């Protein structure tokens, strides 16, 4: 049977169960220590029991022989000895598996290949290695003992199944206090004692060691850095008990100074931020204090104006504490207090008008030199001797003069009213007050002078002459008015009365109030025609009231049927501008009627021009309905004075009452009254003859009145394209006029008011 001899020859053979199946050569595993220095080193000798007389050739193959790493193992092909040719490293390869072969000299296999396993035995040739050179951990200050911070773990490349890789941890150095401990087996670092204080020691640097062979072998070290996290366990404290500051008076929003504090907690953290409070010495809130976010100091500012003359110094009690509450574990301490003394520095202040604006009153027409007022200012700087002088800064009408030393203001000239320099009866002037400091300061005061109205004018009768009928009732009244140069309340309402010196006037005349500015004069008995002078007494409502006796010249005329003077035109021309109420209404009504007639005529002309533009005469038979015809005669005009009796216009009722109709003096005696109704033309083309006949009949009719009337020609054709008269009137621009005043003219114009109002 085959045999293996390690070092010296040694026989062996393989058994399988109780029965030997076949012959085979089997080599048990060979152990060799790593780092073996005696080389070459005989590991084993193999033999085959099928050795022939000619000999056996041995060979091996596998890693370390003909595979990487090459040349580690070799075999003597004739003796079968296996040698180690290089030092082994278990950490690189802990075992090698080779194949051994036995051949005869002819190269024929004598045995099946057998396994040759070489095991590398470990030696403690590797130190432990920490995972990192520096370990970092955090723990809050004041943490309880046993609070774990981090784990400093290491590894060993040696065989973990041997003591070569069994590690033990320890802390070699951590400074005074031995505040931390490490688990020898796991490397976990925890607090060992109470009393961690960031303000005393903020960072701990530990030197940690790991050793193999259960602490007796190779060693290595690392650094563990432990940071203490801050908690609010220290209140802020003032750096000193008293602080002094100085600030100018009248300064607002400026910083007076700082109060300095110190807090042992971490700067910039919420545990460090301070909050200041003014406890005493400032009941009116003159100062405020805030925290400087960069330095944590208190900044004292002025919130309200300071007055050195009122109070020149302040003594404040200020407290400080953290924004965040102290931790319950923090030691108890009293509230930090400091005294802040603020001195108010005196500066020059501008004079002050305590009454601004100053309002005074002066009577209208006051003579020059009249005292208006004394307008002075005071100097707030009572601790400084200063002189204030005055000047007029604004006097637009140059009405005033000012004493520069006393501030007394007088009139320079008479104050007149009305004036362009008055605003609602007030005169505005500006006064400048200046002190004599260096540099000087000034102030401006407004002087408002009310020019009081004086009742120095009596009412004036308007108009001073007029005309009215001498018959009581209709037409026998006159509207009187008055004006007054004074402003309210020295003007209206006016009082009209007959002169008390002539009581006999009350038998023929009466005056009644119409409104605040007018009255109505009426006759009580029928008076003969002629001129009358009535003495009237007019009085205003001023204080005291002013009155004036004036003559009213009245021309009494012959009254017509409607209460209108028959010779009113002549009377008005001789008596003046006065006019009765009835005559005024008639004139206004005639003007409105005249405007309406002019508008109707313009509309008619426009319609005719429109018809001509449309070209109505387009057929062989001329349609004369819308042609413009010259009728030659439309009644009496300016040149018809000789043909007509003007009395028919003034009193038509006298002539209409006659049994026989009036005859026109210019009509031919042979003319006959035309027959009516006339026969209508059978063809529209005969309209010209029809109109001419109507014209001739009108001219020959002696009963026609001598003024313009609308002549009825009986026929104007059918199908006229002309618009109705109402549409013509509506097309005018009368809608742009306001006729609401017609309703105020009385019952005679009620119809017009309904149409156009």
UniProtKB/TrEMBL annotation:
<protein>
    <recommendedName>
        <fullName>Cadherin-15</fullName>
    </recommendedName>
</protein>
<feature type="domain" description="Cadherin">
    <location>
        <begin position="354"/>
        <end position="461"/>
    </location>
</feature>
<feature type="transmembrane region" description="Helical">
    <location>
        <begin position="581"/>
        <end position="603"/>
    </location>
</feature>
<dbReference type="GO" id="GO:0009986">
    <property type="term" value="C:cell surface"/>
</dbReference>
<keyword id="KW-1003">Cell membrane</keyword>
<keyword id="KW-0472">Membrane</keyword>
<keyword id="KW-0732">Signal</keyword>
<keyword id="KW-0106">Calcium</keyword>
<dbReference type="GO" id="GO:0007043">
    <property type="term" value="P:cell-cell junction assembly"/>
</dbReference>
<dbReference type="InterPro" id="IPR002126">
    <property type="entry name" value="Cadherin-like_dom"/>
</dbReference>
<keyword id="KW-0165">Cleavage on pair of basic residues</keyword>
<dbReference type="InterPro" id="IPR015919">
    <property type="entry name" value="Cadherin-like_sf"/>
</dbReference>
<keyword id="KW-1133">Transmembrane helix</keyword>
<keyword id="KW-0677">Repeat</keyword>
<keyword id="KW-0130">Cell adhesion</keyword>
<dbReference type="GO" id="GO:0045296">
    <property type="term" value="F:cadherin binding"/>
</dbReference>
<comment type="function">
    <text>Cadherins are calcium-dependent cell adhesion proteins. They preferentially interact with themselves in a homophilic manner in connecting cells; cadherins may thus contribute to the sorting of heterogeneous cell types. M-cadherin is part of the myogenic program and may provide a trigger for terminal muscle differentiation.</text>
</comment>
<keyword id="KW-0812">Transmembrane</keyword>
<dbReference type="GO" id="GO:0005509">
    <property type="term" value="F:calcium ion binding"/>
</dbReference>
<dbReference type="GO" id="GO:0016342">
    <property type="term" value="C:catenin complex"/>
</dbReference>
<dbReference type="Pfam" id="PF01049">
    <property type="entry name" value="CADH_Y-type_LIR"/>
</dbReference>
<dbReference type="InterPro" id="IPR020894">
    <property type="entry name" value="Cadherin_CS"/>
</dbReference>
<feature type="domain" description="Cadherin">
    <location>
        <begin position="131"/>
        <end position="238"/>
    </location>
</feature>
<dbReference type="InterPro" id="IPR039808">
    <property type="entry name" value="Cadherin"/>
</dbReference>
<keyword id="KW-0479">Metal-binding</keyword>
<dbReference type="InterPro" id="IPR000233">
    <property type="entry name" value="Cadherin_Y-type_LIR"/>
</dbReference>
<feature type="domain" description="Cadherin">
    <location>
        <begin position="239"/>
        <end position="353"/>
    </location>
</feature>
<dbReference type="GO" id="GO:0016477">
    <property type="term" value="P:cell migration"/>
</dbReference>
<dbReference type="GO" id="GO:0016339">
    <property type="term" value="P:calcium-dependent cell-cell adhesion via plasma membrane cell adhesion molecules"/>
</dbReference>
<feature type="domain" description="Cadherin">
    <location>
        <begin position="480"/>
        <end position="570"/>
    </location>
</feature>
<keyword id="KW-0325">Glycoprotein</keyword>
<dbReference type="GO" id="GO:0044331">
    <property type="term" value="P:cell-cell adhesion mediated by cadherin"/>
</dbReference>
<dbReference type="GO" id="GO:0008013">
    <property type="term" value="F:beta-catenin binding"/>
</dbReference>
<dbReference type="Pfam" id="PF00028">
    <property type="entry name" value="Cadherin"/>
</dbReference>
<dbReference type="GO" id="GO:0034332">
    <property type="term" value="P:adherens junction organization"/>
</dbReference>
<dbReference type="GO" id="GO:0007156">
    <property type="term" value="P:homophilic cell adhesion via plasma membrane adhesion molecules"/>
</dbReference>
<feature type="domain" description="Cadherin">
    <location>
        <begin position="24"/>
        <end position="130"/>
    </location>
</feature>
<dbReference type="InterPro" id="IPR027397">
    <property type="entry name" value="Catenin-bd_sf"/>
</dbReference>
<dbReference type="GO" id="GO:0000902">
    <property type="term" value="P:cell morphogenesis"/>
</dbReference>
<dbReference type="GO" id="GO:0005912">
    <property type="term" value="C:adherens junction"/>
</dbReference>
